[in-house]
Structure formats: structure tokens, C-alpha cells
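Give me the 3D structure for ABC-3 protein.
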Amino acid sequence: MPILIEAAAAALAAGALLHAYFYAPLLFWPLASLLLSSVVLAAYSPLAVSRRMTFLAHAQGHSILTAALAAAVPTALLGQTPASPAFYLFTVLFVMLLNFAVLATERLGYRKDVATGVVMSFQLTAAIALLYLIRKLYATTLDPLALITGEYVLIGPGDLQTQLPMLAAALVFPALYGTRYLYAAVDELFAESIGMKTRRLDHLFLTSMSLAVSATVYTLGSLMPAVLLVLPGAIAARYSNKLTEQIPLAVSLAVAAAAAAHFIYTAVPWLWPSAALGAVMLALLLAKRYK
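Predicted structure for ABC-3 protein (291 residues):
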């Protein structure tokens, strides 16, 4: 079953790229960015699910929004735009600060979900203040809604070139430590007894995940990355219980959903690709449930 899903996802992605190249050229680069973003975020999804970090992963929607709004301020002061490398770098910095703020709050004695909720509460307050500040800095040149929905149709080869190094760097952690991290989630005490530093891996996971979501904010906006950090892993767990299959299966499901979202968007233009992607992921979840 996993091999069939992976083959179907690859064929669907190739078909979507060919369709975009020949019949909808404006959407070729946005689709390429969406597919690559889906691959990277979905690779983290089983890790978040297995380590019971889904609350933190889902909270990335709030973290990315606050970080993107905060990053827009120094970016504006430097005379750059949200499509510039400076914006991405500032976003990475602020996302990391917010995610590690959760760990710092957890050390006060709170559970992970409570610590995440505390930090999220302060993020919402900061986001409101930042929205007013950005309106003054950018006036009419930046629509804050774009930070939520993404600038999908405006993505070009230059934007993808800016994304690629960050996406490639973000893939290092799941490629090198993904399977070990999954096994550590099954039996953390045994993992530590054989020399695995689970706390250090948690820190590396947060750092790399921050890089992954920051690299995709211009394409997917601030909310959809959180969906791709949770749903592919949750769905993959329903299709297979083998740990070694979780990451490739989650990636395949996300790629298939992104490719299907492209066809849906070309047929129904008012349904934004990120929204269509979420609808496809829901269909994949329900398809297994009622099979």
C-alpha cells in the first residue's frame, strides 16, 4: 500500500507540473514552490505526531503569523520587501525565539500544551500591536492578509531560488535523525540508555522546524504550514503502523494533496490552493476511516 501511494503521488505531481507548464504557465513556479514546501513540512509531521508535539506544531500558525509581522518591521526599516531574503531571515529568527520560548515556559513547571498556550496568548497580543505598526510602515504596499494566505500567484523563479537553501537545510534533520527520533518516541528511556540525547534532538527538531515553516510562509501564508505539520503524519499513521514508513508515506500524501490542490484551483479559482490542499488532506483522512 505505501509503495502504491508513493508511486501515485509522484505521478500526480508530475502531471500537475506538466499541466501548469503547458496550460497554466503563471502557476508553474507557485506549484513548484508548493510541492517542495509540502515535502519539507510533511517530513516533520510524523516526528511531531510521535513526540506528542502536535499542539506545538499546530501552534506554528500563530507563531508564523506573529514572527512574519515582527519580521516585516526590520525588513521595512531596511527598505526591503516581504519577498526579500532579509524577510525570510528575520522570520526564521523570530519563529525560533517563539518556539524556544515554549521550552523556557515549560521549564517553569507547565506541561507542553499549557506552556504552548501561554506563549500563544502573548503572541496574539503582540500580533495585534504589530498589525497597526505595519499599517504605518508599509501604508498600502503590504496587505497584512497576504501574511495569512500567502502570495501564491505572485511566486516566481527568484522566490523559489530564495526558498531552496532554507528548504534544503530544513530537510537535514528528518533525513539524518528522523527514524531515530521516531524510535525514541516509542521508548524514550531505552533511547537514552543507549546514548541517544533526546533533549538535544528535541532542540534540533525545534530549530529545524522553525527553519522549515519560515521558508514556506511566503508561499503558504502563516496558517497552512501548521496544517502540513500535523495532518500528513496523522494520516500516515492510519495507513501504516511501521515507523520506517511514516516519513515517506507522510511526504507522499502531502505531495499528492498539493498536486490535487493545483487541479482544484485551476477548476475553481476562488478556492485558494492552500485551502484546497487542506480539503484534499481531509478527504484522504476520511477515505481511510470509512474504507
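The chain has one domain: 2-289. Let me know if you want a second pass.
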